[in-house]
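Hey L., structure's done. Input below.
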Amino acid sequence: MELINISQNVQRIAKAIESVINVDVTIIDDKLNRIAATGLYIKNIGDKVSQNTAMAYTLRHGEKIIIEEPRAHKACEKCDAKSVCQEYAEVCCPIKVNGQIKGVIGLIAFDQDQKKSIVSNKENLLEFLTRMSDLIATKLIEEKKTQEINLLAKELEVLLDSIDMGVVSLDIKGNILHYNSKAMNMFGIKNKGEYVSNIKELVDDFELESIVNNKKTIRNRKFYYNINGNNLSGIYNANLIFVEEEVIGLVLTFSKMNEIINVVNDVMGASLEMTFDDIIGKSTTLDLVKNFARRAAKSTSTILIQGESGTGKELFARAIHFSSDRRKYPFIPINCAAIPENLLESELFGYEEGAFTGAKKGGKTGKFELANRGTIFLDEIGDMPLHLQTKLLRVLQENLIARIGCRGFIPIDVRIIAATNKKLDDMVGDGEFREDLYYRLNVIPLYIPPLRERKEDISVLANKFVDKFNYKLNKNILEIDRDVIEVFMDYGWPGNVRELENTIEYSVNMAMSNSISINDLPKRIGVSKQTSSSSYSQRIMPLKELEKKEIIKAMEKFGKSKKAMEKASEALGISRATIYRKIKEYDLD
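Output:
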């Protein structure tokens, strides 16, 4: 801290000293700059004092001196103006702050009367100057503290403005003392002159007296705000400010509901991105399904994905979402079969506080609200109870949901992708699934073929899973034996891709070398192979079926190009024209 920062105060003190002693006063800082002056030196304020002067001498030595005979005193030995000096006497008193010299007060007599005023009362004069020096030091300390407080206040303001929540401070009467910029933006306050004066204007049911009297903080309490067309909902926390165990105020933090939902979705992994390129496979069948799903992704219509368990229905649902215009918003998956029937409604639609015994304080936000502007994936939709099917139909028709215990409706914008491994059309015929809901869901039907219908993908998937479990289990499996692949090709895979993945994980764990052999496979795979071979040897296969199977095998091996067909015809022992005719006959296109 420098004297220049309090120059106005220093100048006032210099004038006060002059009025008491009737002697010219000059004050310099520790860099020899003249900060204040009276009389002859007032015109020299701002100039630099020579380092050979008596005041510079005092600055170096830190001692008070009285010079009764200028030019003869040791402090004047090297003075540049010694030969032309007009001074009759001089007094120098250092200004100290915490032991450091910050400047010097100088009294200068230019005639005998002024010299007499100095010399006649030395002790009292030095005591007086010491007091004035202390006064300047105090002003310097005060200025430093003021600057530190201002800096701290600015740091706190920047800190509060950087918090991604609205922050509001109150006194114990609920009067609002401060908003951070987030709170101003949240509540639509454009400038500080528009401050809402009391917390009840922001949260009309705020229990101020109860919080202050009981000295209890509030956590995750809901609020709704609607003033001048600024409509928002969210949660707030209230923390008490104590001084010696007495509550003197409160600090409230506000978060918007949609921001909370985004955080929840990130934590839940609901935003785990998936594209169609992440769906592994090279079969023509799979490519057709992926191309169809890509087109469906550009729509906003509901999609019904059907396929056996383990075929990858959720992978397709995620890929559709992240290829759509909703990809920046949540993807919320929910398994209708995994949640007890009595809890499924509250999971989907949420509930209000006090809606039923055991309901959480503050209520609960349902999955449809969490998925707003995004996609909700209803897996195993065939297991949804009939009474919830009715409520889901209303959501599809009106884009409104109703929480349990709430009379009002909440508008939502959600795309629904449903999935099932059941035959919903049969369930409709048996009265187990609503026909109107079935048609609402089945706007864009998507069928995921089982693994046995796309055997070209088995080898690709198996090797991909080997890489995955090498990393996960810290193994080094380099290959899968050829006879293992043959077993895989003959196996029916009732559990589809999921079963293949589990089989590879088991085999990687069991493998004793750098390759997976027959002995490393689960027993069910080997038993299935033996049973399949035994059954096959007893069965009489129609020639057409045998012919069709061999043509498919040839096409899978050689491909469908003109050159490939030549190789296939040679292997099958028939002409290329016959192959084309058989392909058409057996509808193999």
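Confidence is low (pLDDT under 50) at residues 530-538. The radius of gyration is 44 Å.

-- N.
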